[in-house]
Amino acid sequence: MFEGKVKADVLREVVDVVSTLVDEAKFNVGKDSVTVKAVDPAHVAMVDLTLDRGAFEAYKADEGELGIDMDKMKEILRLAKAGETIAMRHDEDKNRLVVTVGNTTRRMALVDTAGMSDPKVPSLNLPAKVVVRTDELRQAIRASESISDHIALKASPEGFEVVSEGDTDNVSHMVPKDLLEEIQAKEAVRSLFPLDYFSNMVKAISSAPNVTLYLGSDYPVKMEFKIAGGKGEVKFLLAPRIESDG
Amino acid sequence: MFEGKVKADVLREVVDVVSTLVDEAKFNVGKDSVTVKAVDPAHVAMVDLTLDRGAFEAYKADEGELGIDMDKMKEILRLAKAGETIAMRHDEDKNRLVVTVGNTTRRMALVDTAGMSDPKVPSLNLPAKVVVRTDELRQAIRASESISDHIALKASPEGFEVVSEGDTDNVSHMVPKDLLEEIQAKEAVRSLFPLDYFSNMVKAISSAPNVTLYLGSDYPVKMEFKIAGGKGEVKFLLAPRIESDG
Amino acid sequence: MFEGKVKADVLREVVDVVSTLVDEAKFNVGKDSVTVKAVDPAHVAMVDLTLDRGAFEAYKADEGELGIDMDKMKEILRLAKAGETIAMRHDEDKNRLVVTVGNTTRRMALVDTAGMSDPKVPSLNLPAKVVVRTDELRQAIRASESISDHIALKASPEGFEVVSEGDTDNVSHMVPKDLLEEIQAKEAVRSLFPLDYFSNMVKAISSAPNVTLYLGSDYPVKMEFKIAGGKGEVKFLLAPRIESDG
Question: Which domains does chain B have, with CATH numbers?
Answer without folding.
Answer: 2-109 (3.10.150.10), 128-238 (3.70.10.10)
